[in-house]
């Protein structure tokens, strides 16, 4: 039974069912904006299928050729698991912040713009990601991976589940005021500002897990400063879907 539950198809299926039940329920109860489901749902499900079946595999193939693992001291392997895991999250999230900023600069915007294309933001809309974007976003986690090389066998599955939950969480369509959490973690209210099509909101809130990097490097914009009801999302780029999905 345990072996069966460890099968990737089963894990993905159970995870998707969990996301549907939990995040859809939360948005149904505390939704901030009306979502035209007939318009967006099929496109987002197709984007998710493309991400799972094509993007992740294509990015993993590229990362076999382009990657760099950090030259961490061998003594770190003797650290307690909790200490190594905490250091992994801090290092990887710091790198993810800078990779996110990088793909908003110049020609690299091409690899990221599909992620910003949805005009309706909710938990499923954040799954658009090009092959090149995913390969770039994998780099900080590959760099930090030696920190957790000697770890429990369930850790890889746990990190995968956490990533999916984090991505769904940050793109949620909710009207929560979370106060101090917006200063510690990336929350739906802070991340939706990053997706805004208002030029005043460009180059803000690049964090993935922690919002401290945005505050450290001057890119944090507080939800308290923004009229959420007036925000609109999407991009003006007119690009064929094939180029968007590849990232060129």
Question: Any descriptors?
Answer:
single chain; 248 residues; mainly alpha; 10 helices; 52% helix; globular; disordered N terminus
Please explain how this structure is put together:
By secondary structure, the protein is an all-alpha fold. The chain has one domain (2-246). Helix content is 52%, strand content 0%. The protein is built from ten helices and no strands. Helix 2 packs parallel to helix 6, helix 3 (37-63) packs across helix 5 (131-144) and helix 4 runs antiparallel to helix 5 (131-144). The longest helix is centred in the N-terminal third of the chain and has 27 residues, at 37-63. It is globular, with a radius of gyration of 18 Å.
Gist of the model:
The chain has 248 residues and is mainly α.
Could you give a short account of the major beta sheet?
Answer: none
In terms of structural class, how would the helical and strand content be classed? mainly alpha
Could you say which overall geometry the principal axes of the C-alpha atoms support? globular
**Poorly predicted tracts of residues:** 1-6
**Pattern of helices and strands:** HHHHHHHHHH
Number of helices: 10
Please give the share of residues in helix: 40-55%
Mean pLDDT: 90
* Structural domain tally: 1
SS elements, strand count: 0
End-to-end distance, in Å?
43 Å
Report Rg.
18 Å
Strand content: under 5%
